[in-house]
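Priority: medium. Attachment 1 of 2:
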């Protein structure tokens, strides 16, 4: 079969011929119905230095996957061939206290994970191929009725990551509050919908691109604000001078973190989701009192089931552009140029 592989650090991926995967005991092979192109893949291609991560190329890209069960190994009884499924992306050891509650993102026993601190498309072979080997059936989640693999793919990362970030801030988002999402790309446009579907907060979307702000409006944002020098003042004006209760930064550069810090309110949450390499200074006088600052990584297995439920009920829907495997490199190029609206999905 053909697969889009990252062959080495600091390189463009290549479409090459590889062997079809065979499932071993407890394993599942998924026929891919959709593999999302995530901005993190651009960071993988261009930003990481050898030795920076606990795993290395070569591997097949695509860490946002859904499809149908194609083959199961000995001992896998829970899936019929052809069952539509999503792949839970972060692969832990399956046994440590974090993994036991489904938070495999923060596995404490990564030496025993299939890839230390990684997953399919992140050190192990991912879904930008016709077939994908999932090393343990627990990492395969059946799709709820009414959700197709092509629609579900984006929910496994672009949906799950902001869902986890937003869920932890639910107590700070009762009626009368304001949540800001910075960066309305793959993650951000779903963040807007997740906020609308799961909280009563007023949702403000911030981006540099006109197209992205229009998408945010379609996704239900109450207001949109261009990401410029006036953005923080605009959010303060909208909130009676107080600022936003929760700011989710889906970019994570110096510029957006500075913006986030200047619009968050006393007692608020500033959550860094984007891997833009920026930083924010934390000190007694740099942020309003009792602001919590956190990074979040992906989400848990049970949260994936929750976000798929939102998808199946039509409360959250990814805006997607479909690319064939041959066109996958074009999808990444377009993402780099900032011309993708929503999520690019590769359908092998
Ligand atoms: P994307 O390219 O689809 O979207 C990025 C958006 O940010 C675009 O709309 C762009 O116009 C906007 N943007 C860029 N600079 C901006 C600025 N200064 N102000 C406001 N908006 C700006 O990317 P994506 O796939 O949604 O990923 C977003 C980020 O999240 C990436 O850094 C990615 O690596 C990271 N990510 C993190 C996790 C995690 O677990 N923490 C998971 C997935 C992706
Ligand atoms: Zn990702
Ligand atoms: Zn673990």
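Attachment 2 of 2:
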């Amino acid at each position: 079969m053909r697969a889009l592989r990252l062959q080495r650090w600091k390189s463009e991926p290549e479409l090459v011929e590889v062997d079809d995967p065979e499932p071993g005991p407890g394993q599942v092979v998924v026929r891919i119905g959709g593999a999302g192109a995530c901005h993190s893949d651009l960071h993988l291609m261009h930003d990481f230095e050898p030795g920076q991560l606990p795993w290395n190329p070569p591997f097949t890209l695509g860490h946002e996957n859904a499809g149908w069960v194609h083959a199961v190994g000995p001992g896998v009884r829970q899936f019929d061939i052809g069952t539509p499924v999503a792949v839970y992306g972060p692969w832990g050891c399956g046994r440590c206290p974090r993994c036991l509650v489904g938070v495999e993102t923060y596995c404490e026993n990564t030496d025993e994970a299939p890839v230390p601190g990684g997953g399919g498309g992140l050190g192990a072979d991912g879904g930008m191929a016709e077939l994908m080997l999932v090393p343990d059936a627990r990492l395969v989640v059946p799709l709820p009725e009414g959700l197709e693999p092509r629609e579900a793919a984006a929910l496994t990362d672009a949906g799950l990551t902001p869902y986890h970030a937003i869920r932890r801030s639910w107590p700070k988002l009762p009626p009368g509050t304001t949540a800001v999402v910075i960066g309305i790309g793959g993650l951000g446009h779903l963040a807007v919908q997740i906020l609308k579907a799961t909280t009563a907060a007023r949702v403000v979307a911030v981006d540099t691109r006109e197209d992205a702000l229009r998408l945010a409006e379609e996704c239900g944002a109450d207001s949109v604000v261009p990401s410029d020098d006036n953005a923080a003042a605009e959010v303060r004006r909208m909130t009676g001078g107080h600022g936003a209760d929760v700011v989710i930064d889906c970019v994570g550069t110096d510029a957006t973190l500075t913006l986030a810090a200047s619009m968050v309110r006393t007692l608020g949450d500033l959550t860094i989701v984007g891997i833009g390499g920026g930083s924010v200074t934390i000190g007694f006088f740099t942020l309003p009192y009792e602001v919590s600052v956190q990074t979040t990584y992906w989400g848990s297995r049970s949260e994936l089931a929750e976000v798929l439920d939102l998808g199946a009920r039509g409360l959250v829907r990814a805006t997607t552009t479909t690319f064939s495997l041959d066109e996958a490199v074009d999808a990444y190029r377009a993402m780099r140029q900032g011309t993708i609206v929503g999520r690019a999905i590769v359908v092998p």
